[in-house]
Specification:
6 strands, elongated, transmembrane, alpha+beta, three-stranded antiparallel sheet, Emp24-like
């Protein structure tokens, strides 16, 4: 699972290559995605996130990879109680993993929103200072203009 957290148009190229050099998955200009595959070949799998279409804009990528095992076949000598307990443990484990991933996602989103809020706040403060300076300048200009307007000039 991946998602572009910030940067540019929030798009990136994705490629997953197996140990035999075969491309397992390839996507272009994706903002987020979830891909599942079974690793039939032992070796190193390569995940490539490319930002070639907009190299001037850095991007933050949230990336998550879950590695699991295929469910084991139940042997005949185990009873139904043990199978049920194993199923409950697997379900609890997957639920906890999901909660952990959601929490990480929420932390990233919180950081992004905090950055946006701080940026907006600094812009509002700068604009307010600019408006205050313009207001003072206009006030001084009007006072000087009115003073000259009502000034009496005597011709001798």
């Amino acid at each position: 699972m991946f998602e572009i957290a910030e940067g540019g148009f929030l798009d990136i190229d994705v490629k997953i290559v197996g140990p035999d050099g075969r491309v397992i998955y390839q996507g272009e200009r994706e903002t987020s995605g979830k891909y599942t595959f079974a690793a039939h070949v032992t070796g190193v799998y390569t995940y490539c996130f490319s930002n070639q279409m907009s190299t001037m804009t850095p991007k933050v990528v949230l990336f998550n990879m879950d590695i699991g095992e295929a469910p084991k076949e139940a042997s005949e000598d185990t009873d139904a109680h043990h199978n049920k307990l194993d199923d409950m443990i697997r379900e609890l484990s997957s639920t906890l993993t999901g909660v952990k991933h959601e929490q990480e996602y929420m932390q990233v989103r919180d950081r992004i929103h905090r950055s946006i809020n701080e940026s907006t706040n600094s812009r509002v403060v700068m604009w307010s200072f600019f408006e205050a300076l313009v207001l003072v300048a206009m006030t001084l200009g009007q006072v000087l203009y009115l003073k000259r307007f009502f000034e009496v000039r005597r011709v001798v």
